[in-house]
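Obj.: predict assembly geometry.
Materials: sequence records (below).
Method: joint structure prediction, all chains together.
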Amino acid sequence: MEIDSEKKTHERKQSDYTCLQDEGFEIQKEMYRGQQYSQIYFARLHLMRTLLYSLAPTWKPHLPVCKVLGLEEGKECIIVGTLFKHMKLKPCVLDEYSKERSVTPLVKPHNFMHPDDTLILEDESGRVKLGGSALSPPVYVTGVVVALHGKETSAGEFFVEDVLEAGLPPQIERPFNLKEDKYVLLVSGLSIGSSSSNPLLFQLLVDHITGHVSDDEELGLAAQIVHVVIAGNSVEFPRKLLTGQNMASKDQSTLYEPIKELDIMLNQIAAGVSVDIMPGLNDPANFALPQQPLNRCLFPGSAPYNTFRSCTNPHSFDVDNIRFLGTSGQNIDDLDKYSEAESKLDFVERTLMWRHLAPTAPNTLGCYPFTDRDPFLIETCPHVYFVGNQDKYDSRLVKGSEGQQVRLICIPKFCETGVAVAVNLRNLECHTRSFNIQL
Amino acid sequence: MNRAGNSKKRPPPSTTLPAGKHRATGATPSPSPIVGTLEDEFVDEDVFADEVDEESLILRDMEEREALSARSSTWARPPLSPAYLANSQSIIFQQLEIDYVIKEVHKELLPGSSGQAAVIRIFGVTREGHSVCCFVHGFEPYFYIACPPGMGPDDISRFHQSLEGRMRESNKNANVPKFVRCIEMVQKKSIMYYQQQKSQTFLKITVALPTMVASCRGILDRGIQIDGLGMKSFQTYESNIVFALRFMVDRDIVGGNWIEVPAGKYKKDARTLSYCQLEFHCLYSDLISHAPEGEYSKMAPFRVLSFDIECAGRKGHFPEAKHDPVIQIANLVTLQGEDQPFIRNVMTLNSCAPIVGVDVMSFETERKVLLAWKDFVRDVDPDIIIGYNICKFDLPYLIERAAALGIEEFPLLGRVKNSRVRMRDSTFSSRQQGTRESKETTIEGRFQFDLFQAIHRDHKLSSYSLNSVSAHFLSEQKEDVHHSIITDLQNGNAETRRRLAVYCLKDAYLPQRLLDKLMCIYNYVEMARVTGVPISFLLARGQSIKVLSQLLRKAKQKNMVLPNAKQGSEQGTFEGATVLEARTGFYEKPIATLDFASLYPSIMMAYNLCYCTLVTPEDVRKLNLPPEHINKTPSGETFVKQSLQKGILPEILEELISARKRAKADLKEAKDPLEKAVLDGRQLALKISANSVYGFTGATIGQLPCLEISSSVTSYGRQMIEQTKKFVEDKFTTLGGYEYNAEVIYGDTDSVMVQFGVPDVEAAMTLGKEAADYISGTFIKPIKLEFEKVYFPYLLINKKRYAGLVWTNPQKFDKMDTKGIETVRRDNCLLVKNLVTESLHKILIDRDVPGAAEYVKNTISDLLMNRIDLSLLVITKGLTKTGDDYEVKSAHGELAERMRKRDAATAPNVGDRVPYVIIKAAKGAKAYERSEDPIYVLQNNIPIDPNYYLENQISKPLLRIFEPVLKNASSELLRGDHTRSISISTPSNSGIMRFAKKQLSCVGCKVPISTGTLCARCKGREAELYCKNVSQVSDLEELFGRLWTQCQECQGSLHQDVLCTSRDCPIFYRRMKAQKDMATAKQQLDRWSF
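Observations (raw structure tokens):
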């Protein structure tokens, strides 16, 4: 797109975009046929175990590798299995049936940790309680596959001496021939229709992307944006209207209004630059991960553009051979409820080290019961790994032992902060673009 | 053979097969059908020498024996110290069981006597954990009769002779030199009726054996010819007392206390009779019984064995011992007072993959499994055997199974050598419990404690399945594997059998956890100590034996004797407790409750009501007692006051109550948790005992009924309630200087509800206290009226039915209290319970009556619109007999029959609980024809009958609640606008639907269309309709995930499919429904992907 101005013409930079990895997140053909969650755990364990077994000889060359069943008291060995965290405070669907309805509503705690939480390691043959201080329960969650070095004690516990995580996956080589600055703009939590959303803010964002700005410098920046990703929670509408009964026409419009507004905005963006929209927790999409693309019938205005793509959550794509992987935030929010870390980025980094996008699925995070695969395994290390709908912006570059470099990004909620995140494809550096009107 | 199982404990021999995926296919017999295994075994029996290489067999046997002996050492009790071995130490032990055996007289201890005698046998455990079997010699059974007037000391020998003669006739085959050992004259007093004379003459008749007491009593009852006196029949005294109890009373031994036998006073025989570590004989006079105080209130380290068995039933049948094998036995052994079991093992038929922390023992034949268990029980030597329903199922099954297999040595499970376990059917009936049938299995020296019986006895629950009991007490759902799956798991491989073993172990562990959680051992031992009966009586007998035991002990101190009750004589009834007329309504002012603290015991104490203070009407006229020394009760009986004769019952009660006060005070002081447990158990036992004294006197088929006492107690109770009402309403009036007139709105057995009229809780509390103090002052001590709590608001529905918020402090209410309102009855569906609780919550706590009505209307509308979760509509009933046996057709009986026709394997059997829902059917169909299996309903979209639920289930309880608070409740709630629209699902299997053609319809308005998703008219509403559709899917997905992960959690495994089919579990149907709904919702959603 070209923008005429008095001094100079800014031309939108071009880039190659491919989105092949999302196929794994699609569940079009799959049906609910009575399958259960055991299979996804089985698939996860199977793949991760092959990987960890291959690492074990270099990690602890002298130790034999055992299954949980093969443990012998006092004998040091390595076992590989899925962790299960036994949590005292974990909410439970059976609580609804408990004898007494509690008189005072429970204050929902920020997270469900308790000092008595314990870890258990399980493989398909059995489970064993874990002891020792090498493995700290606050750090790990149910569903992570690890290798442990230790021995069985007389009490039937496995005393852990050392832990091996899968670590950063191998990475495709990053192209170094990029000479110019090109940006991918990441934004999440537009929450159109919520009480805190400000239509002006969103318009500023759109104008910035499309180059409807007077400032030449800003215009230059705008022209460098080659791709926009909206990472979940774009609209918010009152769910209580959706009771299954027929709605009054007034309610129909309150429901439809935010989506219509979003469609108009997307229409403007898509006319200028390619845009991906991912579903989030509050969007009109399914609940369980992977969330399927928002239906095109919701966007009659933008859907015809070939620059508009409705994508899955999680979402993975390549821009100029830079691999992006991201979610709308549910995986990290769930980790925040069931484990502890100093910052949200630590959770993000952990999932990468565990090579699993959402270890707590299906345990505490809704997920489709896959039968033959676990789509959340991270087999290839992305160059940019982003997580949407976080409280504040944060970013760090992680370097792996095999030369991998990953940019981790927490995208803040736009409606609360007015902040979008721009990633430079040339050097993976990233900065925020703030649209706060007060500033 | 059991290599897979032992590889963990033994140094692995090179041949050991690795566990896990590669099953021991070569070494272990491939899982053959059960019949085949049995045949193999019989072959094994007869001709194994020809078939199997004998040498390898011996080798294998040795290997096996080695493994067993290695285990034996960990199983055995601690070895005896030298002091014990040298007999130089007194033996102090806590006794658990006292019974007697008939043996030859011990010549050393009782020189000069011969023949057979009853020997008291006491089993117990020392502080160090040694098992003790103590034989007590020299104690002889006896009873009393009143000495007939005119009989002097000289006549006794003649009487003795004729009695001896009659006894000889009726006991022909007894081997005793003398039947009636001796008859003495003693001075005693009968407990019945007030008597002025100090004592009268009784004859104490001592017989040779305990069984002879009954035959001797029969002879004396019927009458006996005595020279010089003619034909005479006698009232006997204390002739129906169990011998062991007689012994305990006479030696001051109470159940579960510590007994000491000093060094030198006991003798050990060379030939022992039992497997106990310390077996000895002593004279009964040498026993020292320690009162359970201080050091002697503690518990010995009993060994508690908790076990569970699994049987492989045939399809469609509940396992029967004649046909179906025992395939697994899981055992846990815990020392009393420790929180973790020290032995965990499981014995399996055929190979089983190892389990961490559990000793898995696999055997090729069922015979070996059973024998291994027998050896295990002998080696571990448990004092207490616990389990869930072991008395009715597990133990009888094992014994019958062993008999069916012809294993003769199996039933040697007791502590006594060569004594077989005896089994008989027993019926237990008591007023409190009703009649129950069970099997009684006697394992000598081991106390059986069936948690099912104990919980059934002590707690009122809606279901007593292990699943719901553990959900109730441990708040844990248990995985329930249907017995048809058990056989499949057994016939699978080592891994599936391991699955089963894990399940079996869990079932063995739960009883132990329940035992700990409910503090059963402490509570039962304390109850035995307080009431003085052996512990085994507590489970096997009713309330009355406990009171009898206390009465006997007290009477003995007072030199009194108890007459034998004439069985089933006067079956009089008397007026029960009073209930003041309830002024129904919804009270929005505080209601104060005034309670009489333990009313009945206090009345008995205050008015000195007892057997021995009751004056017969005859004596009232004759004796001319001064009026200041007697009380005439409102029911017209006369009792003397304390000044003339102190009653025994009041004395017992006083002791119980002061002991409880002491226990409670000690409880506050106590720091050690184990000591606390003992004291808490004690105060509870004391409370229960005090309250059961009244019942004892009123039990018409009891040991010593005396309706004069019980009717006097209730008549006093009635009088007091009415008196209280009068006092309150007279004193607290505006005339008396109070702000409002007080009003008694309701009164039950021992409490009175007063509305003082004041609007705030604090003022009501002050007035309540004042009233309680004032009225207490007008009653005789120790009757005391206490102010306990305030209800605010209070919904009084009718007699015995009310609900309200309880306040014990003016700042904040404590909880919601309901009585007599259907929330727990199990023939109601869950919907009723939810509706009632939620409505009460809204009315009482939120004070939002319109909101409650709105909620009810919405729910009713949901019900009619078919939007209710099916699991809320499930009704369950126990199947007690097969369908044909029911005289009146019942919904669940009929359904069970229908299900059997559909699939015999999964149909409910007798004893199972049958869950069902009521479905729509042809007009005029009977209710019992409309019952259907919920699963079947889910699978086939069968419409339920909302009207049945509306009219037969929810209307009554709801109206009861709403009538006091809402005008026209019935028309408002049950017949309003919200009941106009109805939606019924179309069944997918009904006749007509087979001919119907399915056609696409518009998602929006259901108009038939040929292609696409929406009709022309609905185009443009895509976004709205899609949002609706997707939000449904999203809700279902969330639910689906929560439900299925919860089941994984209960099951304790992430990598295995959930098998549980526990229909008691509240989420079972929801889980199935979520799965099905998910599939349809997903299909619907897929229509949008155009």
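Conclusions so far: The longest strand of chain B covers residues 91-104.
To do: check interface contacts against the pulldown list.
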